[in-house]
Design brief:
Blueprint lengths: L2 H29 L20 E7 L5 H8 L17 E7 L2 E7 L14 H9 L3 E7 L5 H12 L2 E3 L6 E5 L5 E5 L8 H10 L5 E5 L5 H9 L3 E3 L1 E6 L6 H8 L4 E3 L8 H12 L1 E6 L12 E4 L4 H8 L7 E7 L29 E3 L10 E6 L1
This protein binds guanosine-5'-triphosphate and magnesium ion.
Length: about 375
């Protein structure tokens, strides 16, 4: 790249950065009004239930309601015409002892985030989920996927992305301290400083620890972005060629299915489980067998304190210690077969020796836990 070209690029990036900051600010005001009564971003009023919520987002007639009817005991009206579903319809998927709420939603159209159709309500409801399924019609063009991503992006949902590694702290005095631990190749200090100024942030500490883009920096400032896992689900593969299906199926975060022909639906649920990062632990009373029928479902990264809270509120405050038997099926490190008599159930799959642990010990999927209190 020539020096002139490079300077031009930087100038463009700079002005574009300022413009983006302004736009992002207007959008945020539009979508997140300070008073409840002004309408704006509220979703459908459906009670959350179960261990996790999954929202179905897609254009009309891609088969969202058909999927709900196939995977849960709930029937949601399905039809060949568009906008069959007009409200949020919850169903429950029972899988590996967990109850996952699957939310069928009305189809959205381009411009949904700006308030077309019920789009605004749909995307706001999507924000309350733990996982988004973007449902697509495999017989239609790839463009649909990009259009949906734009709608979700416009309401601050970031799909399959991590929060940018930037520490941002407001102060009352002292000016701006800007530090970077990596070289910035997609934006520059001047752009960052002008964006801060355009947000009237004259006193703050900024530590950038990743090669971020200008947009990612604006996301950090706005602060209300939601980083959500997402699976792209291509339905109606019964109506496309094997070659086309093969190509779609290889994409990242993608599952191909046919609701009508019951193809690959089990695999979709498995993938949902993985994406949700659910962990289930069994509890065991002293002198009794672990209760394998009623696990406690938690998030990946949960600790013993979360287990306590999952049993009873008072447990964590009276906590003394916990015993944990790891599952042999999920923990290849433990090789010895089970010998502990009380754990010799029909499955024989737990480690023979318990580990004595405290509240901050992280639990793993299929652990057996006994809590001891004061
Ligand atoms: N070929 C084929 N058609 C399907 C499949 N799944 C659903 N359909 C058809 O697609 C049409 C729309 O299905 P719905 O489940 O009502 O779609 P929806 O996404 O809920 O649509 P809205 O509620 O209008 O947003 C129906 O005629 C279904 O029979 C599939 O796997 N293959
Ligand atoms: Mg529907």
């Amino acid at each position: 790249m020539g020096i002139v070209e490079k300077t031009l690029n930087q100038a463009t990036e700079y002005h574009l950065g300022l413009l983006k900051a302004k736009l992002a600010r207007y959008r945020a005001q539009l979508l997140e009004p300070t008073t409840k009564s002004s309408g704006g971003g509220s979703g459908f009023d459906v009670q959350k239930s179960g261990d996790a919520r999954v929202a179905l987002i897609g254009f009309p007639s891609v088969g969202k309601s058909t999927l709900l009817s196939k995977c849960t005991h709930t029937q949601s009206e399905t039809a060949a015409y568009e906008f069959t579903t007009l409200t949020a319809i919850p169903g429950v998927i029972e899988y590996r002892g967990a109850r996952i709420q699957l939310l069928d939603l009305p189809g959205i159209v381009e411009g949904a985030s700006q308030g077309r159709g019920r789009g605004r309500q749909v995307v706001s409801t999507a924000k309350t989920a733990d996982l988004i399924l973007i449902m697509l019609d495999a017989t239609k063009s790839e463009e649909q996927r990009r259009l949906l991503e734009i709608e979700l992006d416009a309401v601050g949902i970031r799909l399959n992305k991590r929060k940018p590694d930037v520490v941002f702290k407001r102060k009352t005095t002292g000016g701006i301290t800007l530090n970077t631990t990596v070289k910035l190749t997609k934006t520059d200090e001047r752009t960052i400083r002008s964006i801060l100024a355009s947000y009237k942030l004259h006193n703050c500490d900024v530590m950038i620890r990743e090669d971020i883009t200008t947009d990612e920096f604006i996301d950090v400032l706005i602060g209300t972005r939601k980083y959500m896992p997402c699976l792209y689900v291509y339905n109606k593969i019964d109506a496309i060629s094997l070659e086309q299906m093969n190509k779609l199926a290889r994409d990242e975060h993608t599952v191909v299915i046919s609701c009508e022909m019951n193809l690959n639906l089990d695999y979709l649920i498995e993938r949902m489980w993985d994406e949700l990062g659910l962990v289930k632990v069994y509890t065991k009373k002293r002198g009794a067998h672990p209760d394998l029928t009623d696990p406690i479902c938690l998030r990946r990264g949960a600790d013993i304190e979360d287990v306590c809270n999952g049993i009873h509120r008072s447990l964590a405050t009276n906590f003394r210690y916990a015993l944990v038997w790891v599952s042999l099926s999920t923990s290849p490190k433990v090789e010895c077969p089970l010998t502990h008599s009380l754990l010799q159930g029909k499955s024989s799959k737990f480690a023979p020796h318990a580990q004595k642990v405290g509240l901050t010990h992280l639990v793993q999927d299929e652990d057996v836990v006994s809590i001891f209190t004061k």
